[in-house]
Amino acid sequence: MVQRHSFAKKVQMIIVLTLVAIWAAFPIYWAIMVSIKPRAETFSVTYLSIPFIQFQPTLQNWIEDLQNEEIRRAAFNSLVVSTTSSLLALFLGSLAGYALARFRFYRIKNRDITVWFLSQRILPPVVVVIPFFLIMKTLNLLDTQLALILVYTTFNLPFAVVIMRQMFKEIPEEIEEAALVDGCSHFDTFLRVALPLSAPALAATFILCMAFAWNELLFALILSQKEAVTLPVFIAGSQQSRGVFFWFAATRSLMAALPPTILALLVQPFIVRGLTFGAVKG
Amino acid sequence: MKIDLGGRNAKFVFLLPAVIWTLFFTVFPLLYSLRLSFFRYVLGKPEQFIGFENFLRAFGDYKVANAVKVTLIFISIAIPAELLLGMALALLFNQKIPGRRFFRTLLTMPLFFTPVAIGLLGLTIFYEEGGPINSFLGLVGLKVPWLSHPTWAMAAILLVEIWQWTPFVFLVLLAGLQGLPEEVYESAWLETSSGWQVFRWITLPMLQPVIIIVFLLRLIEAVKIFDIAYSLTAGGPGTSTQVYSLFVYRSAMKFFDFGYASSLAYLLLVAISLVIAFFFRRMREIYE
Amino acid sequence: MRKLNLLLACLLITMLVALTTGIAQAQTPEQPWKGKTVTVLVIAEGPKAGISGPFYHFREEWENLTGAKLEIAEFPFGELHEKIFTDLTTGAGKYDIFVIGTWEYGDLVAGDWIVPIDQFYGDPRFPEWPKDLAPSVELLYTWGGTWYGVPNDSDGQILYYRKDILTDPKWQAEFKKEKGYDLPVPPETWDQLYDITSFFNGKDWDGDGEADSGISMHLKVGGQGMFHFMSLSAPFVVLPGDKVDNVHNTYWFDFETMEPLINSPGHVRALEFLQKLAKTGPDAQLGWTLGEAWDYFLRGKAIATFSWGDVGSLAQDPERSKIKGKLGCSILPGVYEVYDRSVKDFVKLEKPNVVGNTTGGTWHGVISKLSKNPDLAYHLLSFHATVEKSRYYAYHGWEGVDIGRKNQFIEPYGTNTIEGFLEAGWDKNDILEYNKAYYDNFYAKTILPYLRIPGAFEYWTSLDQHLSEAMTGALSAQEALDRVAEDYRNITERLGVEDQLRYYRESMGYAGQ
């Protein structure tokens, strides 16, 4: 009896796990299939669309899309904008995070400052998108990488502050005290002691910031015109007056989704912490 | 508790750059758009002060009411669904299951998939005349009007959203579960053999702080929904999936109706602020 | 010593530079625009299709010819308007050419933001092209008689049907048995078309074992469904007459009060008909954009569709179409009863009221006022508009240039011959059907008036959205169009009633009562 029960349970478990795997992976699998299908068969080949059995795969879509000059520019822009803004956010954020972890503020309490930072992240982008557009217009910054960098830094900064504060709090203060006693300035201590000690956290925060900036659509759509177009905007461009080019939507979404996904997998143990603003330990 | 590392001004040098940056790039735009919301803005004409007209218009505009309704429906289905599914998955993988790491990795992937891309791909996945989903449903004689029926279009958006964000809930809750002390469970199992009892009276109360955090974070993000509605249904059919952000975006960027759009954005800000104020104490406790 | 060296080096470099540029100039004296750049803003369609395709296709050829560089900026349909006016209102001037849907004219002309091309036309510095557009299309390239656009695309919706099935004696006999009259090929009225699509809907008429559909349309929000409605409703609404006045040849607004006509009994009846017609096709079409709707017809799943020239040319592509050689085309059907504003009732006509349309974008390039090289920009557009290129892109339908110029129409309708089309792979039956249908459409006696006032697309977006509400059954036809009318009043009021009225009269050629 016991044996049969555990066997049934095993089967049950396998079914559930298979369903979970299909659920999680299917859209990605499907994207790959659409990207290697001949265009005419986008809709006519169906069910699971198994290559070689249901259709003859082709690399035509990939080749054509990769040859497109404009897509390379979009990828380059995405790269520049997301790394620069993340570095900036990280720099400012770790400074402020350090201050909140190590010093005590009296007039406004530390936790209130922290929560204030956090509340900035809660701001729906659509609330500030119009003034940002008009301000960038006035400053003549529309369609520049700089405009996007400024925006993404702003939206990543609260995140970096809160996370880095948590990280610094976990480093024993004694090491820094020792450095201070040795005559280092606060800044030196921060730079030479605190930062290296929290390097893994820094890297992980950087990657999460980058993933956010990399995937962002609304601001990029509004602030870019030609020069500063990023990948998500470019992907949105597969929607055309004459319908959607599904094959390009597929190649481009894979191109766009790959970097943040791979990077995120690298810092997987940190993801939970990062995404909960340090409130839950992973 | 906290030692003053000496130097009264050093701390401000550390803190102020981030504070100034944030103030400059959020408070200033917010003031700017507050001003804007009292003006009528027409392309190529001078702006014109019209007092509260934009706000009055917003309250009388059935499209605004519709956008609010659509967004609320979206949130009130997406979040519970994600929480339930995420909780189920977390409980499942909290057991000793072979390949747990593999599944964790697999479930991390949707989180970072570019949303606008998944929306466009959704058009092929939800294709009604024999797309992958409908072709399998067809085997049992079903044909779901995914993108052509107001209710089902909302369902399609919800499915994409749930696909992308359930993993988040799952990962966080799993982390929470794994942080729970084992001794409590051991003694609990001596008292009862019902898994539900243990979950209801031990797991749930201990996990409550984590659940609240997940709930809050999802709430905050779900309100912002834009990308999927933009790329999958474009707000349709009719206005059945025209969520608030999409509506404001259209008013502003398609028709350059900046004044009206700003007033709409401000109303959202007020609503969000009320929600946040409600949870403010809770958040302060977390960051003690 | 060191100073001398530096001086020498400088001198040497200067000489080198002078020499190389001198050589470059000597080598290519025919490249007067060397080193300059033209940027085209165009709807996103990629290098191999639609309106943007030709720019990629001839980019190298044109760059070699002029020595200039061509940059292409693509944006989705929905973003184009914003990008154009952001560029203009900020004074950025990033684009030299906007490839626009012709509804943009109102905003562009009102702001004085585009350059008339009359000054360049006929100048030997530029490639030569004939002014041979059909008059109904020419109207869309001009404003108040002044040319702004350079010929490229001609859009209009015609009826496509499966000639092979409709002329099959077996189906004809069954149709007669069921509907009581001979199957009309092509249908002359919308009611006849409805009889056809409802007859064939749900039957397996192509013999593949699956039930097929009647009609295939694109009715997704943002999928340009309002164009279906405009073309279809034209004969219900547009009363034929010799001139444009408040009763005849009018569709959008009252010429005296700017009161919207969009919820008139004619419009409502047309929308009710569209609702009925849609029932003879797949439900999925309410979520379709052009691509899916065409694909469905091309794969042989629908008996009829009404759409742009793309369908005709895509049908020739064996990779995408199963219906090559089976195509029937005609001008859109008419109706016997058309609404007459003067008597506030429908009037019955002897013959069906058949109305041509220029529905769509008629996508073409206009030159930005901020362009630093308007002459170069004009060169590019002219290059695109030459007879050689115009025919090439008409033959190869994937470029999305639908036929509408005399040099493209086959004799006796134009000056072209059939050979080029056949060489490009067209089926003979298909091209002849297509050729005649488009001629009939663009040269029809009555043409659906085209809305080109400022904010035109905002008016259409409202129509698009509420149309979708009516099609899903959320609203009745009357309710939906009442909402559109309410939106129209609001938009007009916001943009200024007086201004809008002036532009409306100007764009329609209304001379007063």
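The mean pLDDT of chain A is 85.
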